[in-house]
Structure formats: structure tokens, C-alpha cells
Amino acid sequence: MSVLPPLGWGGIARLGLVQSSLGAIVMLASSLLNRIMVVEYSMAAALPAGLVAFHYGVQLSRPKWGHGSDAGWRRTPWIIGGMAVLGAGGILATYATTQLAGPFLPVVAALVLAYAMIGIGVGAAGTSLLALLATRTAEPRRPAAASLTWIMMIVGIVISAGTAGALLDPFSPMRLLQVAAGVVAVAFGVTCLAVWGVEGAPQAEEKREAAPFGEALRGIWGDPLTRLFSIFVFFSMLAYSMQDLILEPFAGLVFKMTPGQSTSLSGVQHQGVLAGMILVGVGGHAFGGKAGMRLKRWIVSGCFASALALASLAMAARAGPGWPLAINVAVLGFANGMFAVAAIGSMLELAGRGGPGHEGIRMGLWGAAQASAFGIGGFVGAFAVDRLRAAFAADGPAFEIVFAAESVLFLLAALIALRLNDRMGNNPAGRPHSQEAVA
Questions:
Q1: Please, what are the domains in the chain?
Q2: What is residue 102's three-state secondary structure?
Q3: Reduced 3-state DSSP string for 16-51
Q4: What does the alpha-carbon distance between residue 114 and residue 86 come to, in Å, rounded to a whole number?
Q5: Bridge partners of residue 323, in order along the sequence
Q6: How far apart are CA 250 and CA 262, in angstroms?
Q7: Which helix (H) or strand (E) holds 210?
Q8: Measured between alpha carbons, how far is residue 106 from residues 85, 96, 302 in Å?
């Protein structure tokens, strides 16, 4: 059977366009509809927050979708099929939102179905996309490939959010449906064009034989390095996500910033994230040494820097106005970008442990760890701040404790990453330490 050459930068950028498309539709569900439900339809904020958390819960099925793409001829149908389900879920969620003025329970049932479809679509398309990127990218290019695809995802979110926001004025339910349909149509069309021909023509002899899902999952979980990396992903992403819902309220309550000022602060953080991703993408590709060990150093450095930045935010909660908050938040974003894109690069590197045909289920396992951490982290951070504000009858101490807890979680993640360094150093060939289930 013919072996396709590794992807060049053009091919990697094409797959990055799929990440842009995923980000555009997810933005529709997690950001735009969130605001519409709360502001235009006067729903409690718990409704969209619960739906977003639910879609993360559905993504615990990612290992199953990854295993499915491992067992097939190609990953392209899983990517296109997942995007189709994601797009349909986005449109259903938008339509159900426009019906919130009517009977409540049928609309909520439709929203639950829609967000389940969104979770399934993200899981199937996103996991298969990362598995394809892992199998088709040469090892020296993986740090830069991870950086490029994630930057393109953020760019997709920014462009779709700005375009949708401009087209929504003046707001009406029909205009919202038209904008959502346009976002979904463009995203799906771009995805189909981006993956067209990347895997070449399907050949019957290329079909991969795979062990049953349960056996395959037990096999990869039995590999100590895979298991340790899964634990790292969970704790690092838990720390990463806990400040998502509380940073802007913190700026308003403790630093007395206006909504516009706190939104600008969030923009500063995202600019820092992009800068950190670009640094690791360039540094991980250009600096000397083995790519995998370079990535581990970036992960450890990023986690330690994130811990320091969050410890500084805890001190900012005590100091109040006068603290250089914008600089602090920019450093936090930069450190987060460093560790996050290095972690994705490491996923690409470690996905093929045990030989070809296991990339999808590994990516699925790590994607499930990330999704569960995001679903738990955002809720726990916001809930803890609410409880602590009530207990202390003050804002500063509540945020101080939560930011300090996040800092400790990042330190724990850094220690786990150091153990990963040791494990990789003792096993440079990348072979499993224990017997995996193979077909």
C-alpha cells in the first residue's frame, strides 16, 4: 500500500481551517446564544451555563469517536460527518433560542438535544482532526503545527464573532437564524474543501483492524505514560479554565472597571495567549534538541509561569486598585498560551505510541480529560467565588482564595509534567511501558 508523504505547511494550514470552522460554530453556541438567552430573552444565566457544561459532558464520548476513526479506512468522513452534526446542532440551538418566549419545557428539551449534537459533533470532528494531524505531520513540525492550528481556531472565533455581531443589528429572531445559518454554511463548506484529498483516494487494503473499544481503551490506559499524560491534561486544563468566568467580574468588583474596560482586559489576556502560542510554535520548531523534549520544557515553564501569574492575581485581589492588573493578565495569558500549545504538540507526538492505528482513541482520551476539566473548572471557579463572597461579605478575599487555589493546581500540573519529562527521557523510543491491546 502507498504511504503518503508528511504534510507540508500548506496541508497543515488547510487542517487549521477546520479548527477555524469548529471554533466559529462553537462560538455561536457558547458565546452568542449565551448573551441572547440572558439579555434578549431574560433567562437566568444558569440556563446557557448549564447547556455549555452539558456539551462538555457529552464530549466524554471522544474516545469512542477516536476509536471509530482508528477502525475505518480514513478519518475524513468522521471529520465531515462530525461537522455536519455540529452545524445541525448549532442551527437547532439557534431556532430553539428564538422560541424561548413560548412554552418553556419543549424549548429546553430542544436545547438539550441541540447541545448534545454540538458535543457529539465537536467530539467526532475535533478528535479525528487531531488524529489526522498527528499521523500526517513530521515530528519536527509538530510544535509549530499545533501552534498554527490553535491560532487559526482563535482567529476563526474572532472573525465569526465580529461578523455575526455586526450582522445582528438591529436584532430580530429571523436575523439571528439567518446569521447562524450563514456561519454554519460557511464553516461546513470550508471544512469540506480543507480536507478534500488530504488522505488521498481510499483503498480497501488500507482498512485498519482494531480491537473492540473496551479492550483498546483498557490497553492504552494500561500504558503509564499515556495515563500520566491524561492526568496532566485534566489538572492543567482544570487550572486553566477556573478563571474563565470570574476574571471579568473580578475586574469589575475589585478594580471597579466598567464593562467596556473589563472586556478590553479579556482582550489583553487573549493577545497574551496568542503571543505565547506563537513563541512556542516558532521556538519548538527552530530551537535545537529533540522536539519532544523541547515541548516538555515549554509545558513545565508555562505551568510554572501560570502559577506565578495567578499567585500575583491573588495578591492583586488583596491590593486592589493601583496593582498593574493589565500587565498581570497579559503575563497570565502568555504563560497559558505557552503551556497549552506545547501540550497539544505533545499530544500529537504521543498519539502514535504502540504503532499506527491508535491515534484516534488516544486523542479521544485526552480530549475527554480536557472537556471534563473545562466543564468542572468553569463551574467550580464561579461557584467558589459566590460562596466565599457570601461567607466573607467581601469580594477581595473570595477572589484571592480562588486564584491561589488555581496557582496550586498549576504547580501540581508542573510537577506532573516533570514526571513526564523523566518518563520520556527513560523511554526515548516512545514505546509503551506495558503491553497494549492491539488487533
A1: 8-199 (1.20.1250.20), 209-439 (1.20.1250.20)
A2: coil
A3: HHHHHHHHHHHHHHHHHHHHHHHHHCCCCCHHHHHH
A4: 9
A5: 321
A6: 9
A7: none
A8: 21, 9, 46
CA pair distance 75, 193, nearest whole angstrom: 15
Q: Residues 286-293: contacts with CB within 8 Å, 24+ apart?
A: 290/428, 291/139, 291/140, 291/142, 291/143, 291/345, 291/349, 292/139, 292/346, 292/349, 292/424, 292/430, 293/421, 293/424, 293/425
Written as nine digits, the cell of 203 is 483503498
Exposure class string for 18-28: b at 16+ Cβ within 10 A, else e: bbbbbbbbbbb
pLDDT tens figures, 287-332: 444 555 566 788 899 999 999 999 999 999 999 999 999 999 999 9
pTM of the model: 0.78
DSSP conformation class of 139? G
What is the pLDDT of the chain when averaged over all its residues? 83
Peptide bond into 170 cis (omega under 30): yes
CA 272/CA 332 separation, integer angstroms: 7
Residue pair 223/434 in contact (Cβ under 8 Å)? The answer is yes
Nearest to 225 by CA among 351, 339, 125: 351
For 295-314, b/e burial (b = at least 16 CB within 10 A) is bbbbbbbbbbbbbbbbbbbb
Side-chain half-sphere CA neighbours of 66 within 13 A: 32
Q: Which three cell numbers stand for residue 319?
A: 491590593
